[in-house]
């Protein structure tokens, strides 16, 4: 695996957190769980994973800024760089014993994501990318988005809002318009892996209306470096604001036309 020093640091941190999470995943029934809101949980495992990542990344780059799902934002002495971290994307899956969750780490430089790691410890799949250097899986598999061009053959992914989120009605309308026109829609509960799977050609496209920056930062770069397209859900909007559409170039317009109505 060849990458920058920053990327190698990110991979090391992701693997360290992954080992800790896998250990706790095997004992998921014994985890002490607190609740942040309906369907949105924090576990001891989650917090410990973020602590390990933060220790590794800021230990190696103490001047960089930081934003993590559990510990919030911190300014660094270097205002041009910050780490963006979700230590456990797919917490609800994790808590229910479903082996579909990930560690997501991105490096932002002057407002742009330049390095990305999405690690799936349960399957030992390390998705990674650097701006201008392509997207990769594990040591040497180059990632490319799918080559499908027909909507009726396409498999898409999304996130269906839980609890009483305001975007649920709009998402249900999306599904009602899209599902008759495609081969299927999956809701797997981990945005970073949905985007990584678009980059790998496993999904043909993805959209979601209500995400945080740590959910999507790494995945967006993976899709772009794998040859895909990413835009804000509203034309002209910034996908990093939390509502986005991603797909290969042949299906992007068809998916966007349906979702944008």
For the structure shown, list the relevant keywords.
single chain; alpha+beta; Fructose-1,6-Bisphosphatase, Chain A, domain 1; eight-stranded mixed sheet; five-stranded mixed sheet; globular
Explain the overall architecture.
The chain is an alpha+beta fold and 261 residues long. It folds into two domains: 5-142, Fructose-1,6-Bisphosphatase, subunit A, domain 1 (Fructose-1,6-Bisphosphatase, Chain A, domain 1, 2-Layer Sandwich); 151-260, D-Maltodextrin-Binding Protein, domain 2 (3-Layer(aba) Sandwich). It is 33% helix and 28% strand. It is built from seven helices and 15 strands. The protein has helices at 5-25, 44-60, 91-95, 168-178, 191-199, 213-225, 252-260, and strands spanning 33-37, 40-43, 65-68, 72-74, 81-89, 102-109, 112-120, 125-130, 135-137, 141-142, 155-158, 184-186, 205-208, 229-232, 244-247. The protein has an eight-stranded mixed sheet with strand order 4-3-5-6-7-8-9-10, with helices on both faces. 44% of the residues are buried. The model has no long low-confidence stretch (mean pLDDT 94).
What strand line-up does the widest sheet have? 4-3-5-6-7-8-9-10
Mean pLDDT: 94
CATH superfamily label of the largest domain: Fructose-1,6-Bisphosphatase, subunit A, domain 1
Oligomerization: single chain
């Amino acid at each position: 695996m060849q990458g920058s020093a920053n990327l190698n640091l990110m991979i090391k941190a992701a693997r360290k957190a992954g080992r800790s999470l896998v250990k706790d995943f095997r004992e998921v029934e014994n985890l002490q769980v607190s609740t942040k809101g309906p369907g949105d949980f924090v576990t001891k495992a989650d917090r410990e994973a973020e602590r390990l990542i933060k220790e590794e990344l800021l230990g190696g780059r103490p001047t960089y800024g930081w934003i993590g799902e559990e510990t919030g934002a911190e300014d660094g002495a270097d205002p041009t760089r910050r780490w963006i971290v979700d230590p456990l994307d797919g917490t609800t899956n994790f808590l229910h014993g479903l082996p579909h969750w990930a560690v997501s780490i991105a490096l932002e430089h002057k407002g742009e994501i330049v390095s990305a790691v999405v690690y799936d410890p349960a399957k030992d799949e390390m998705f990674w990318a650097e701006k201008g250097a392509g997207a990769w899986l594990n040591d040497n598999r180059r990632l490319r988005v799918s080559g499908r061009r027909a909507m009726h053959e396409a498999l898409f992914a999304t996130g269906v809002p839980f609890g009483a989120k305001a975007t649920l009605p709009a998402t249900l309308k999306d599904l009602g318009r899209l599902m008759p026109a495609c081969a299927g829609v999956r809701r797997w509960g981990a945005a970073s892996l949905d985007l990584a799977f678009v980059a790998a050609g496993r999904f043909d496209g993805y959209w979601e209306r209500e995400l945080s920056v740590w959910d999507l930062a790494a995945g967006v770069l993976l899709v772009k470096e794998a040859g895909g397209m990413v835009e804000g859900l509203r034309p002209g909007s910034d996908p990093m604001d939390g509502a986005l559409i991603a797909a290969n170039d042949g299906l992007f317009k068809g998916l966007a036309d349906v979702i944008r109505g």
